[in-house]
Structure formats: structure tokens, C-alpha cells
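Re: duplicated header lines in exported C-alpha cells

Our pipeline writes sequence and C-alpha cells for each protein into one text file. With two proteins the header for the second block appears twice in some exports. Here is an export where it did not happen, for reference. First protein block:
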Amino acid sequence: MKIAYQRQGSGPPVLFVHGVGGDSSHWAAIAKQLHTRFDVIAMDVRGHGKSDLITGPVDAHDLARDAVQVLDEAGVAQCSTVGFSLGGTVALALTLDFPERVGKLAVIGTVCGRTPEEKARSLERVEYLKQHGSEAIAEANRERWFTDEFREAHPDIVDRRVAQVVACDQASYLHAFRVFCTGDFADRLDQIHVPTLIITGEHDSAATPRMANLMGERIRDSQVHVLPRLRHSVLIEDPEQVGALLELFL
């Protein structure tokens, strides 16, 4: 299994894991802020970027093992791990399954502790994707991902994000999206014993502030930051603020 990654900078290693329908380039702006102080390793999640496709059902534990493969290939015994959206779920799985590999943890826009109603809506979104394809769900996500102001000011950036999702291998996207919609480690958060940073947007309808605060309550050594006004795509809309929080934390 080929799991591709980009590496730049020097210093303590940090592994970055992107969300569904993205790739390692989503961390470019943050890597630019951090690479003078850190060894930045940004992986392409299986089924995305230059990594091999997803050919069958997977779960967050499978993707966490892919992350271990990247660390092994990079010669990194332990690192800080930063995950966005699906990548945050993978980062949680990595921390729980391979605690010796993670020194610090940061989860951004990460879903955790869904209510029964939220679980039902997530499964409905999987069915919607199966019936209508990634183009329909990407178009519907414009407002879920970005603030009204950002969509008006930067339609080209929003269009590129939608086009990136549409260009994904459809089977890989469906398998990864199912992990995003079903993975949940709320019941195991008390097993995390590393310093943890939790970030989400104030108006993120998937990874809500309630979920962020729940993680903050259950992970002993943690801090929560809810970013005013922002929705889900905080990495694209405000990488400077996210990068500044990461730099202070790491």
C-alpha cells in the first residue's frame, strides 16, 4: 500500500492528516508558518492525492495504521499529530491505538460524541452521496464549509475546493466519507493522556462547538478554541489563526 506524504522543514516532527476529499496540500499555508521550527510531514490519506485508492470498506483504525506506515518510512518514532475533520478522527485513532507514537495531539473540525439525531443525519448523508455522487454533496457543502463573506470574496477558492472533491475517485470518496460519518471515539477519550488542542468553527454544523467542548471535558490535558464566525473549512478560510494556535501549542 502506497501512502504518499510531503515533508519540509526541520525540528520536532509533526504529522498532518487532512479531511475527506482533500490532500496534503490543504496544509500548505500552515506548513509555511511552521516549517522553520518543525519537521512538517503531511500525508495523503488513502484514496486521496498520490496515495493508493481505497478498494473496500475501511475504518479509522485502518487509516491510523497508514499513518504509522508514514511515520515508519519517515524514520519518526514519535511526533505531534494534527488532524482536520476526518483527519482528526484518524489522529484520535492513532493516539488511542499507538499511544507511543503520539507526543501531542491537535484535532480541528473533528466530529465526536454524535447524538442519536446527529448519527441519523450522518447516515442520511452517506445515502445521499451513494445516490447522487460527490458533485451533488460538494455543491451542497459550499455553505456548510465557508462563511457567506468568504464565498462572496473568494469564489475561485471555493470553486477549486468543490472541483477537488468532484475529481476524487468516487469509490474512495464514498469509503472515506463513510468513515467520517460513522467514526466516533467519544467513549474512549479518557484514555488519551497527551496534551491535546481542540479547534472548531463557531458555526461548524458537523464538528459543533458542543462536540469540541465534550472532547475538552473528557481529555484531561486539553484546551478548546472555538473560532468566531467560521464554519467547517477553517484551514482554507483562516489558516493564519489556526497556524498561530498550533505554533503556540506545539
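Second protein block, exported in the same file:
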Amino acid sequence: MTLTLVTGGVRSGKSRYAEALLRTAPVVRYVAPLVDAGDDPEWVRRVQAHRLRRPAGWVTVEGPDVAAAVRRAAEPVVVDCLGTWVTALVDRAQAWADPAAAESVVDAEVTALLRACTGIPHDVVMVTNEVGWGVVPEYPSGRLFRDLLGSVNARVSAAADRVVLVVAGRALELGPAPTVPGEDPA
């Protein structure tokens, strides 16, 4: 089993790149940790575009229990995306105003996800957004999301066999780049 993390900015091509990694597999489990679109037609269009792009033989599992979906897979897996998953976890825990609770929930779920990945015999490709390269979010919930996803990305990257950064439609293998020890408290 190979764990690959594909990270990058919004609309950089990271989902298409991740899907292409498994395009030759006859069946792929596509795990989409959806956040309820509500009455947002733009979000509905984005989700629909992702659904339509997937090959007919791929099995889609939607929902926040990503570890269980990976553990149950009998085929290669794409998880798209960890940012949506973190949002769903914090929403479900109603912890946007409680950073300690949000960190606890996300930490436990990431641990479960990484355990699930070690127990399966097929490839897993995870997609995530790279955050924190721009303006500091104005609202505490935005800063909490940025910090949580940054930590999730670092943990998954440290466990991954391969990490690919997609920037402006270009995929850059991070290869033997060293991981940063410990957690940055700032």
C-alpha cells in the first residue's frame, strides 16, 4: 500500500491529479467528506462537477467518517478533500468557538484515519488544500480552520510515502524533503 498526499492551492488541479494516479484501476473508492451545501448553488455545482468527472466504475462514499470508509475499502481509495473533512468534523462537534475541543476531535479522527491506512493492502490518495500562505483570516473560525488543516496536512504528510504539491497546474514531487520535527506552537 502506498499513501500519497496531494496538496496545493484552490483550483490548482490537485483533484484531477489525484484521480489520474488511480485512473487505470478498474474500481476506486472515492471518499468525499461532504459539507451540506444548503442553498448554495455554487457549492452544488462544484460537487456535481466532481461527481461527473469520476469514471462510471468508481464507487462514491460521501460523509465525514473517512476512517471507516478507508478501512472498509476493497479497492484503491481517493479521499477528496481533507479540508472539507476538517470542516465537517468541527461542524459536527459544534466546536468552532472552542479550539481545544476542535483540536481534540480532529486529532482523534486523524489518528483513526492514519491507522485505517496502515491496515489495507491497496493505495490511498488524499487531497488537501495548502493553507496559510496568504492573509491571516479576519475571524477566529478562519484562523482555527487554517491551524487545524495545517496540522492535519503535516501529520498526513509525515505518514505518507509520497507527497505532491500542485501549483498552477504543475505537480511537484516533494520526494525526500525532510519533515519538520515537532509541532510549532505559534
